Amino acid sequence: MTKQQYIKRVGRALECAPAKKGEILRQLDSDIGIALSEGRELPKILEEMGNPRALAGEFNENLDGEERRRGRRRKWARRILCIFGALLAALAVAAGTVYWMLPKMSAIEDSRYFDAAKVRSSTEEVIRLFGEEEYGALEALASREMREVLEDTPLPGIRDFIGGDWGEPISMGNMYMAEIHERNRVYATAQVTVSYENVNVTYTISFNRQMELYGFYVR
């Protein structure tokens, strides 16, 4: 793990307003820099500092009540805006875009198999888990086929594959949902575009009839 990756993970777990968070992260960056200038190795420094979430928890415990309330309100807003990331482009054939473009498409509201509210809430749950880096819990929601794909394409590397630092989420567009019929199989698909500070990303997320995560695509 690099210094910036460590600092970013600490920042994600801090429960305070942006100004206070910036102050904490700048001090953390300075502390690591001083240790490096003394000739110490980065892995040893980070090991002594501990798990990023645990370190952030220590900072959170020392925040006053109002600071923590402001931070939690902002964190909750980010969770609502945050959207699930994606896999390699090759996954599109098996999962997202192909199903989206097939001709036998109908409105999710008319479905006999899916509830629109459930599809939306399941999509939001996938989004939340990815945003919080809860990869194990996310994989537990996946179908057998998707878990096989994830063995070759680990979730932690997806953001880097898409390209660089996306920045914080700014806004999420309308979510379009549909029911797809293909080869006697039925899927629910949700598509949405999310604007981040540095990039716009369009996601297509699919669920099978058991509401297991069956496919997703990003562009």
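the 2nd protein, sequnce then structure:
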Amino acid sequence: MNTFLKVLFVVLVILIIILAVLYYFGRKLERKQAEQQAMMKAAEQVVSMLIIDKKKLKMKESGLPKMVIEQTPKYMSWAKLPIVKAKIGPKIMTLIADEKVFPVLPVKAEVKAVVSGIYITQIKSVRGGKLEIAPVKKGLLGRFKKTKPEKETSKKETAKKK
């Protein structure tokens, strides 16, 4: 029994050390991300562009400049990025869209968007129409679940019928 307590104590100490290291690196990465967000805010500009195409592609297939591909970390080469091909003025450029902006971007439409470098961060307006939010795909089990607003409206309808 005595050896069991010693082993348990050693495991507990190791877990505490691991948590402390993760906390330290997490705070460091959080500060770094805040600095990057401030830099992106400083470089923002509103640009009018015609969206030609949008897809989720791997970094190497995206058609981004070679310098951008070389600077990205190795783990990002496996991830698929939201890539947008847009005509800005006379040039056709390949841009990366924010995850929140990508589903809302209309294809074959002119858009005023906030761009920071090659990164689309926000949509200001769409020429000749409204921003249409694409329907969110539900998972296998999500199709069978009802959302709360639907339940509330069905209860109100049954109360009115009585």
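The chain has three helices and five strands. The longest strand covers residues 45-58.
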